[in-house]
Amino acid sequence: MEAGPARRFVEQHHYSGSWPAVRMAFGMQLLTAAPGPGEPDGGRLVGVLALGVPMARAVLTRVFPSLEPYRASVELSRLVLLDEVPSNGESWMCAASFALAAGRGVRGVVAYSDPHPRVRVTPQGREVVTPGHVGHVYAAQDFAYLGRSRARRLVVLPDGTVLTDRAAMKVRRDESGHQGVERRLRVLGARPREEGEPGGRWLEEALEAIGAGRLDHGGNHLYARSIGARRTRVTVAPTAYPAPKRHTEALSMHYSW
Known about the structure:
Blueprint: H1 3-13, E1 22-30, E2 44-52, H2 58-61, E3 73-81, H3 89-102, E4 108-113, E5 118-122, E6 125-130, H4 136-140, E7 144-148, E8 152-156, E9 162-163, H5 165-172, H6 178-187, H7 199-210, E10 213-217, E11 221-226, H8 251-254, E12 255-256
Parallel strand pairs: 3-4
Antiparallel strand pairs: 1-2, 2-3, 4-11, 5-6, 7-11, 8-9, 8-10, 10-12
């Protein structure tokens, strides 16, 4: 499907509110309902699956050493369905999208699931944006479970989104795109940055002023599978483990505000 409707849908309904670098996107539509403004013809959009480009090439080459990254191997960047979609909708969406992607030359898919709950601060108090998930939908789709990514400490903004290390570096070094990061923080209550003011100093003050939190993140769960008619010929390099069955992260133990 076209990127415009898919992007708007994801930015509205995904807890991150963001649209990553996407190579192809697939939409699920409710055929009995009229499409909304800006939606594709054929019915109202109720789900989007996006396959895209991870931040590091090694994310793909470590898992699929025989596949060309970004063309034959990709990341499942977003999977967003409305609550009204039946419980088997995610599995159906994955199966249908993978069949279409295989027809375009994709042979391997990696996917991450974030088990940590995310919260945002509202006038009424803290509100859970997402409870976190361990990737049951991927296990059901015959993905291999490859363990967890590295643990790290995240900067969580009051709206529940994360300020990535890359975004923070843009401000500290006055790199291209720093204005967008600064606008994002001003919307949350930070003061404007003065002309000539060092980015690092302004950023630390801004994060404190808006009440940014820190999350000790134990790492995302990593899954991978090959797709297409000849999927058995594709090697998934890392060792597979039993997939996790339930959450082990507790919200109160990891956030500090």
